[in-house]
Design goal:
The structure is a homodimer. Chain A is an alpha+beta fold. Chain A is 29% helix and 25% strand. The first copy, chain A, contains nine helices and eleven strands. In chain A, helix 4 runs parallel beside helix 5 and helix 4 packs parallel to helix 6. At the A-B interface, helix 2, helix 3, strand 2, strand 3 and helix 4 of A face helix 2, helix 3, strand 2, strand 3 and helix 4 of B.
Chain lengths: 309, 309
Amino acid sequence: MRLRKSARGLIRLGELGEDRLLEQLLPHLPRGKGVVAGAGEDSAVVNPPVGGDFLVLKTDCIIEGVHFLHGVNPHDIGWKAMMRPLSDFAATSAVPQFALITLITSAQTEVEWVKQLYRGLRRAARRFKVSIVGGETSSTPGPTAISASVVGFVEKDRWVTRSGGKDGDDLFVTGRLGAAMTRKHLQFVPRIAESRWLTKNFSIHAMMDLSDGLGVDLPRLARASKVGFKIEMENLPLNRGVKIDNAISEGEDYELLFAISPRDRDLLEREWQKKFPKLPLTRIGRLNRKSKIKDQKLPRGYVHFQQPG
Amino acid sequence: MRLRKSARGLIRLGELGEDRLLEQLLPHLPRGKGVVAGAGEDSAVVNPPVGGDFLVLKTDCIIEGVHFLHGVNPHDIGWKAMMRPLSDFAATSAVPQFALITLITSAQTEVEWVKQLYRGLRRAARRFKVSIVGGETSSTPGPTAISASVVGFVEKDRWVTRSGGKDGDDLFVTGRLGAAMTRKHLQFVPRIAESRWLTKNFSIHAMMDLSDGLGVDLPRLARASKVGFKIEMENLPLNRGVKIDNAISEGEDYELLFAISPRDRDLLEREWQKKFPKLPLTRIGRLNRKSKIKDQKLPRGYVHFQQPG
């Protein structure tokens, strides 16, 4: 059996078996410093963060027919599966280090498809120096699902949550919103570099990544911070040809939304422009005292399980 | 909307939405010391292990129709989903601390089913003082899948792998093998206490947990250790009414298999008997020099994707 050489999209997982599949995938996994034992052992063993840092954990999964369509390039699917939890690291201003991958797919899936998927996972991991330290595959009669669990660290004084926003804070978003589903959702780069720069140089009161759409995510941040908000709709940075309602409700932007004191506004805008000249940073509104008047209504973003209407 | 009060197995996830589901589940999650921010934030934030310990990571998932049947008590499914990765902690002699849960299920699933599932997850987590620090739900048109990713630690000098077995080592297994699928696979308790006791008191050369059946798992340990093995079939500790071939091939035993110097045999057997009087410990054979003569043939255990024949 010389599966490696003859694999040309013809061999299916059912003919290969999990052990042999892993034998083919494991040697290619990125394994950076800090990894003591990686994929192939019962558990991954790594060096912990240095004293004084927090450990950060996040898991995320994407599902065929929900987060990607059948027929999409498996490399792009792998990229997205890895980048989604990394976007939560950006939200927290944390540094990702180690990832565990779970692949649930049919025994009829072609081995070549899985290899391409792993190429996407590896490329995304390498982009942020993340080591893939464990991989599991499981068969299902249903649609394919890929889950990535990521572990990393954040310095105690740079950790940002959703809940520190204050009355009067400016609200900023990175990049442009809307139309992500046409292409960007499979190729986005989480704003980790931007987030790390922000917490290195400014006091960020609250932050999150926009995955379900501003219309759902901003109210979450406001609720967690126990404040209200007011968006200046005409200031929203939209992608070309996108209507405001769609930009707010479609989701999958993976941009940062954060709250910062208006005292920092001028310096932030000036320094951002120097550091990230190609990436817009836009003040979209502010947080305010929660009044009895209802929050400004926004079109709802994508909510899992919630059916429209 | 007073969903909590009216939930009597009638409300389906599609009517509730992910945010409201999480609101109902989160307050009940076990949250031990070391947890700085748990489920509900973008990422979980915890205190790392103390200096000198390794960080240990493991993920595992179970799927309807593969690892459990439709109609099984959801509490038992939750228990199994949590205990499977914990069994890998036992294999490594590591201490589990934090878990992330991914639930992939249909929008038609009843909310009450999910609550029962989480009761099983929580009870299993509490059994080993594990904090559930993150939960994600995602909809699927296919069968339900539950994935648990667990993070913990192991002291550098107590970490055990599959690869340290030596020519001449005795092979031991805990408990009894076979017939796990009738009941035990949904209610087993990972051998973490036993594993921690073993590495505290003895030099364990190699260890793993028996999840796919001795017939698959032992050859894996031998291969990793670059040795051969000889099992004394008549010594295998079988559950009542189980044939040897089935005991070796069925899997899901979640017992420990380990290799230890024969010099430790007498002391080990005596002390084990005192410490764990209700749990058998059986010497089933030994590791030997890998010869040109083929390894002893064992009936194969369960292998994912591998079809029989």
